[in-house]
Amino acid sequence: MSKQILILPGDGIGPEIVAEAVKVLMCLRAEYGLHLDIYEALVGGSAYDEHGHPLPEETLRLAHDCDAVLLGAVGGPQWEPLHISVRPEKGLLGLRSELGLFANLRPAILYPQLAAASTLKPEVVAGLDLLIVRELTGGIYFGRPRGVETLASGERQGINTLVYTESEIERICRVAFDLAGKRGNRVCSVDKANVLECTELWREVATRVGTDYPDVELSHMYVDNAAMQLVRAPKQFDVVVTTNMFGDILSDCAAQLTGSIGMLPSASLNAEEKGMYEPIHGSAPDIAGKGVANPLATILSVAMMLRYSLDEPTHAERIERAVSDVLDQGLRTADIAAAGTQTVGTAQMGDAVVSALRASAG
Ligand code: IPM
Ligand code: MG
Fold first, then answer.
1. Going by CATH, does the domain composed of 1-102+274-362 fall within 3.40.50.150?
2. I need a surface site. Which of 49, 114, 248, 285 has the fewest CB within 10 A?
3. Residue 328 designated active-site
4. If you measure from the C-alpha of residue 18 to the centroid of ligand 2, how many angstroms do you get, rounded to a whole number?
5. Going by CA atoms, what residue is nearest to atom 6 of ligand 1?
6. Domain 1-102+274-362 matches domain 107-269 at the CATH topology level
7. Domain ranges of the chain
8. Top mutation candidate among 93, 96, 249, 301 for ligand 1, by most atoms within 8 Å of CB
9. What is the pTM of this model?
10. CA 303, CA 135: separation in Å to the nearest integer?
């Protein structure tokens, strides 16, 4: 049966990078017989401009109906003055919440070809392969009460609430333990249990869940220390599980370890393993429309989609190999360029991946 994939290019560099990922999907369809139908819809600032809302009903309906969603990026300076309730980011948060995508998988893998692109010493990052499992539909991002209110004194006060139920903590920890069981057998749960009651509960639940996984070693770390350890000795981590906001921050930090945020894909999964897939970088308005953005994170997000939502691991490996091949050929977009490599644009990079895919089809 044909798989239904919804493409949401979004804003900024989104449309450029997503176009390259679509080329890759088309190549898999043409050369390797992958059955898929592609739909496209608006999200973020471009949806606001067209429909007055960053997550139009039609987009949400398609997202519910499709097997998987591929998203480029949302946001840009032109939409910053809008009220927070209709800003582009609300489109993304709405999709996460409406589809119940509570488990956000953010791998940080250092490609050996890019060891020199990291700002850290090669020996600190060589061979890095860690996975951040970020809770994505709860915590301070969604907690209530929230907002800005005016006190009796006339002064305004801003409020956000960090809240997690035991079941929310338990299900994200299970995802982390299950994944650790398939890789390095270690989970580090990151919290701020010394200060925040909510994450004291987080630690307690993580520990309880851990007893169901005797083969997986569980450790706990405060988030401030985790940020330091990530840049001091990142290879000590296998799977990191943490709250929505801590995961947001630590995953940017982990991304930089690999040299370029332009290389990292992500998956956001719900209980049925339906997923939304997106590069972890943003819409990069400064380079939008110039044809220089790195499409590899989006192309690698397609690989994650094939693995986690479409049950096509062989196609996923094909894409990952093709990406590695183009890096071996010395092709680099500007963000990962180095001496002795050839700098190419977005479309050239996408075409090179497609050629590598075709070459391996024989
Ligand atoms: C991310 C982004 C989003 C987040 C923004 C764009 C809402 O930073 O996916 O990490 O904060 O979750
Ligand atoms: Mg972020």
1. no
2. 49
3. no
4. 19
5. 89
6. yes
7. 1-102+274-362, 107-269
8. 93
9. 0.95
10. 22
CB-based burial, 324-350: b 16+ in 10 Å, e otherwise: ebbbeeebbbbbbeeeebebbbbebbb
Taking the C-alpha atoms of residue 362 and residue 316, their distance in angstroms, rounded to an integer, is: 17
Residue with tokens 């071996």: 328
Residue owning the nearest CA to atom 4 of ligand 1:
248
Q: Which ligand is nearest to the CA of 75?
A: 1
Cα 239 to chain center, whole Å?
Answer: 15
Does 248 qualify as catalytic in the annotation? yes
Cα(253) to centroid of ligand 1, in Å?
13
From first to last of its 362 residues, what are the pLDDT tens digits of the chain?
Answer: 899 999 999 999 999 999 999 999 999 999 999 999 999 999 999 999 999 999 999 999 999 999 999 999 999 999 999 999 999 999 999 999 999 999 999 999 999 999 888 889 989 999 999 999 999 999 999 999 999 999 999 999 999 999 999 999 999 999 999 999 999 999 999 999 999 999 999 999 999 999 999 999 999 999 999 999 999 999 999 999 999 999 999 999 999 898 778 899 999 999 998 999 999 899 999 999 999 999 999 999 999 999 999 999 999 999 999 999 999 999 999 999 988 999 999 999 999 999 999 998 76
Query: Are 276 and 95 in contact, with CB atoms under 8 Å apart?
Result: yes
Residue 224 bears catalytic tag: yes
| Closest residue CA from atom 11 of ligand 1 | 248
Ligand 1 shell residues, CB under 6 Å:
75, 89, 92-93, 248
Ligand 1 nearest atom to the CA of residue 266, by list position: 9
Label the pairing between strands 275-279 and 265-269. antiparallel
Q: 107-269, what's its fold?
A: Isopropylmalate Dehydrogenase (3.40.718)
